[in-house]
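Example with several molecule types.
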Amino acid sequence: MMNSYRQNEGRRRLFIATIFVFVVFGIDALLGGKVRGLVRAGGGSLYSAGAHTLTRIADSGFFSSRRTLAEDNRSLREQVAELEVRAAAVQVLRDENAALRAIVRLAEAEKGITAPIVSSVRSSPFGTFSIGAGTEDGVMEGSIVMTNDAGGGGFVVGRVSDVGKRTALVLELFAPDTSVPVVVRGASAFAEGRGGGNARAEIPRGLEVAPGDSVTSRLFGGRAVGVVGSVLSAPSSATTEVYIGLPVNLGALQFVYVIPPGT
Amino acid sequence: MRISLIVAGVLGAIFFPPWVPLVFMGLLALRYRAWEVIILGMLVDFLWLPSGTLFATLPLFTIAGLVLAWGLEPLRSEFLLRR
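Resulting structure tokens for the full complex:
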């Protein structure tokens, strides 16, 4: 009798939770995503608090020797990432100058804002992450998110898909199961997103493509979206597989540059 | 034990890769008739699912939570809750 009561009570709770979920999704849809905006703001605060706490613990000296090594390691990684970005950006600018195309304006400073990344970039199953800027800062849906390198030809990281007052959700350009039109050495192709700033594309086999070549997208006004990481070509295939990646580790990024759509 | 799994699931949703909260959801659903699994799934989707694409991108974790909570019900009834 007791066991039966517990089973019924448990099922009743499951049923209520199920109804609750549908109701909350409905309310969120009616309010234009305000509920999820609140959840994201809370998640962002928790993430920032957690990151801050970890920094404080590290700064306390408790793990000093380990921390020094970790700090050196982090610093070197950042330097490597920065140099990779600069090298890739130089390649992009060289291509642009050689072709004398209109996208030379990429080298000019874009009008936008710098925003901090306030969430983990590896936690999302949908290839998204949050930034600490919203409608109050001029961010709008569709805004283009770039690496924090506006003056030297930054790379497009993604696009703002959802905006709150002080936070916004960014959908990575190469999120899993996405397809983006790109241009590699003048050839158009579709890059299939693999997540983590990586993608794969197929181009005609005869085209000479080498690792380090810049990849642009007309969808983003001819801005650079990545560089060729590796090239696989089989004699039996009519196409060449090109693996594209961002020259910077998304996990190492702390700030991004957000520019309005259509600029 | 149940609360620890829930807390770990919530922290996993915010700080760790997506398989971490999924593992804790599975553990919760296997051991308990946990309505929290459904809420945890909804939390992951609300945190990360791009808005406006509810029908283009399915709320996978909410669906997973519902499947785990209701789908494992016969298994729990047979092996765990009768003890």
